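Researcher: Next entry: Carboxymuconolactone decarboxylase-like domain-containing protein (Streptomyces glaucescens).
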Amino acid sequence: MTARTTRLAPGVRTAMQSLSAAAKRGLGDPALAELVQIRASQLNRCAFCLDMHVAIARKEGVSDRRLDLLAVWQEAGDGVYDERERAALALTEAVTVLTDGFVPDEVYETAAKHFDEAELAHLIALITVINGWNRLMVARRIPPGGPAW
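Model: Predicted structure:
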Protein backbone atom coordinates (compact mmCIF):
# COMPACT_ATOMS: atom_id res chain seq x y z
CA MET A 1 0.00 0.00 0.00
CA THR A 2 1.37 3.40 -0.89
CA ALA A 3 0.57 6.76 0.62
CA ARG A 4 -2.37 8.53 -0.93
CA THR A 5 -0.66 11.84 -0.35
CA THR A 6 2.24 13.05 1.73
CA ARG A 7 0.89 16.59 1.84
CA LEU A 8 -0.36 18.02 5.10
CA ALA A 9 -1.25 21.70 5.28
CA PRO A 10 1.64 23.50 7.03
CA GLY A 11 -0.68 25.44 9.36
CA VAL A 12 -2.40 22.24 10.43
CA ARG A 13 0.93 20.50 11.01
CA THR A 14 2.23 23.39 13.11
CA ALA A 15 -0.95 23.60 15.17
CA MET A 16 -1.01 19.85 15.80
CA GLN A 17 2.67 19.80 16.77
CA SER A 18 2.13 22.69 19.17
CA LEU A 19 -0.87 21.02 20.78
CA SER A 20 1.03 17.72 21.11
CA ALA A 21 4.01 19.43 22.74
CA ALA A 22 1.88 21.46 25.15
CA ALA A 23 -0.15 18.42 26.20
CA LYS A 24 2.99 16.33 26.81
CA ARG A 25 4.68 19.11 28.81
CA GLY A 26 1.60 19.67 30.93
CA LEU A 27 1.21 15.97 31.68
CA GLY A 28 4.78 15.94 32.94
CA ASP A 29 5.35 12.20 32.48
CA PRO A 30 7.02 11.43 29.13
CA ALA A 31 6.79 7.64 29.49
CA LEU A 32 3.09 7.75 30.31
CA ALA A 33 2.51 10.14 27.42
CA GLU A 34 4.02 7.58 25.06
CA LEU A 35 1.97 4.70 26.51
CA VAL A 36 -1.20 6.74 25.98
CA GLN A 37 -0.25 7.60 22.41
CA ILE A 38 0.68 4.00 21.63
CA ARG A 39 -2.60 2.66 23.02
CA ALA A 40 -4.69 5.13 21.01
CA SER A 41 -2.64 4.32 17.90
CA GLN A 42 -3.24 0.60 18.45
CA LEU A 43 -6.98 1.17 18.69
CA ASN A 44 -6.97 3.39 15.60
CA ARG A 45 -4.70 1.01 13.66
CA CYS A 46 -2.23 3.77 12.84
CA ALA A 47 1.01 2.01 11.93
CA PHE A 48 2.92 5.25 11.37
CA CYS A 49 2.15 6.66 14.84
CA LEU A 50 2.54 3.28 16.52
CA ASP A 51 6.00 2.82 15.01
CA MET A 52 7.08 6.33 15.97
CA HIS A 53 5.76 6.29 19.55
CA VAL A 54 7.09 2.82 20.36
CA ALA A 55 10.57 4.04 19.39
CA ILE A 56 10.15 7.17 21.54
CA ALA A 57 8.85 5.09 24.45
CA ARG A 58 11.97 2.94 24.35
CA LYS A 59 14.10 6.08 24.48
CA GLU A 60 12.05 7.17 27.52
CA GLY A 61 12.95 3.89 29.23
CA VAL A 62 9.69 1.99 28.79
CA SER A 63 10.53 -1.71 28.92
CA ASP A 64 9.83 -4.12 26.08
CA ARG A 65 7.58 -6.11 28.42
CA ARG A 66 5.36 -3.09 29.08
CA LEU A 67 5.24 -2.29 25.37
CA ASP A 68 4.49 -5.91 24.47
CA LEU A 69 1.59 -6.10 26.94
CA LEU A 70 0.07 -2.69 26.27
CA ALA A 71 -2.63 -4.01 23.92
CA VAL A 72 -3.83 -6.23 26.78
CA TRP A 73 -3.04 -3.91 29.70
CA GLN A 74 -6.23 -4.83 31.57
CA GLU A 75 -5.21 -8.48 31.67
CA ALA A 76 -1.49 -7.87 32.23
CA GLY A 77 -1.72 -8.38 35.98
CA ASP A 78 -0.33 -6.45 38.89
CA GLY A 79 3.11 -4.97 38.63
CA VAL A 80 3.07 -4.20 34.92
CA TYR A 81 1.11 -0.93 35.00
CA ASP A 82 0.40 1.06 38.14
CA GLU A 83 -3.02 2.45 39.08
CA ARG A 84 -2.26 5.88 37.60
CA GLU A 85 -1.21 4.34 34.28
CA ARG A 86 -4.28 2.08 34.28
CA ALA A 87 -6.52 5.10 34.85
CA ALA A 88 -4.85 6.94 31.95
CA LEU A 89 -5.13 3.92 29.66
CA ALA A 90 -8.82 3.43 30.53
CA LEU A 91 -9.47 7.10 29.77
CA THR A 92 -7.52 6.77 26.52
CA GLU A 93 -9.72 3.89 25.42
CA ALA A 94 -12.92 5.67 26.47
CA VAL A 95 -12.03 8.89 24.62
CA THR A 96 -10.71 7.04 21.56
CA VAL A 97 -13.58 4.61 21.10
CA LEU A 98 -16.55 6.60 22.50
CA THR A 99 -18.68 3.47 22.26
CA ASP A 100 -21.65 5.00 24.04
CA GLY A 101 -21.08 8.47 22.63
CA PHE A 102 -19.49 9.75 25.84
CA VAL A 103 -16.80 8.95 28.38
CA PRO A 104 -18.34 6.93 31.24
CA ASP A 105 -18.44 8.78 34.57
CA GLU A 106 -16.61 5.95 36.34
CA VAL A 107 -13.67 6.11 33.93
CA TYR A 108 -13.42 9.89 34.23
CA GLU A 109 -13.73 9.84 38.03
CA THR A 110 -11.03 7.18 38.33
CA ALA A 111 -8.68 9.28 36.21
CA ALA A 112 -9.54 12.37 38.27
CA LYS A 113 -8.36 10.52 41.41
CA HIS A 114 -4.90 10.04 39.91
CA PHE A 115 -4.39 13.33 38.06
CA ASP A 116 -4.88 16.85 39.32
CA GLU A 117 -7.13 19.14 37.29
CA ALA A 118 -4.33 20.54 35.13
CA GLU A 119 -2.79 17.12 34.48
CA LEU A 120 -6.18 15.70 33.57
CA ALA A 121 -6.78 18.54 31.12
CA HIS A 122 -3.40 17.85 29.50
CA LEU A 123 -4.05 14.10 29.42
CA ILE A 124 -7.38 14.61 27.65
CA ALA A 125 -5.71 17.02 25.22
CA LEU A 126 -2.97 14.45 24.52
CA ILE A 127 -5.54 11.72 23.88
CA THR A 128 -7.48 14.04 21.60
CA VAL A 129 -4.47 15.14 19.58
CA ILE A 130 -3.08 11.63 19.07
CA ASN A 131 -6.50 10.60 17.81
CA GLY A 132 -6.30 13.50 15.36
CA TRP A 133 -2.80 12.51 14.25
CA ASN A 134 -3.94 8.89 13.84
CA ARG A 135 -6.79 9.93 11.61
CA LEU A 136 -4.56 12.20 9.53
CA MET A 137 -2.03 9.42 8.97
CA VAL A 138 -4.54 6.60 8.41
CA ALA A 139 -6.62 8.68 5.99
CA ARG A 140 -3.50 9.37 3.93
CA ARG A 141 -2.14 5.81 4.39
CA ILE A 142 1.25 6.96 5.63
CA PRO A 143 3.22 3.73 6.33
CA PRO A 144 5.57 3.17 9.26
CA GLY A 145 8.75 5.11 8.68
CA GLY A 146 7.11 6.90 5.78
CA PRO A 147 7.07 10.64 5.19
CA ALA A 148 5.07 12.39 7.88
CA TRP A 149 4.23 15.42 5.80
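Model: Note for the record: The chain has one domain: 29-140.
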